[in-house]
Amino acid sequence: MPSTFATVTVASQPHLRFTEPKKRAPLGPEQKRERKEARETKQERIDAEVSKWFASTMALAEKLALDFDLKPKYFHDIFFQGGARMVMHQQKLNPYNAFKSEKAAECRERGEYKDAAQLHIDYFEEYQGMTDEEKDELVERWVANRNRNVTLRRATPRAKIQDVANIVRNMKLLMCGLSTRIGVEGFFCVVRNSADFHMAPQWFFTSRELEQYMPIATRKKWVTAEVGTKVEAFAVAGCDVLSA
């Protein structure tokens, strides 16, 4: 009598085991205190290193001033550009490039497509025969055409936040450079005035002591984050006191 074999049912799909993610236990008072002390210690080390660098830079400026018979401010301006390097100086447009661009457009309108080398061969003599006034008009036409056909970036929420971040970074550099060169203190707060995107208020103080002085200056409780939130709400409400 033949033996009877039991068949084994094989699952067509693997079984997935779902487990609840482990929740981190809340930090106790002692752990919070230790982490706070660690952050403060780290910040103190950073401040010490930055102060050391600043002192050595000032000493170098004094030394160079003596060596080259110049004022220390001359080297301060070199060391601390104050945002000058952020400005990109664009050179004046070459009239010949504007000429070739115009000729290339004329060729495309006729259904002809010529590269830069062929344009040079066909039209360079014509360009040489032009007066300076005609070349200036060429440049003006090219600039006007570029301005008419400028492509605007789409203002997506992410693009707005990135734009703000870039501007805030530049503002910080300008403030730090100004503070170093002539000796000023100040602060700024940048908030959104639209509900189209979310961005935390952007605060900057030239010194920690200035921020710590704010409760004394206002004679009220000052929490920078809370003040920023209130300013943001006021701006989103259209700077309307009754709506904020």
Automatic annotation (TrEMBL):
Locate the compositionally biased regions of type Basic and acidic residues: 30-43
Instruction: Give residue spans, biased composition: Polar residues.
Output: 1-12
Q: Where is this region: Disordered?
A: 1-43
State the protein's name: Uncharacterized protein
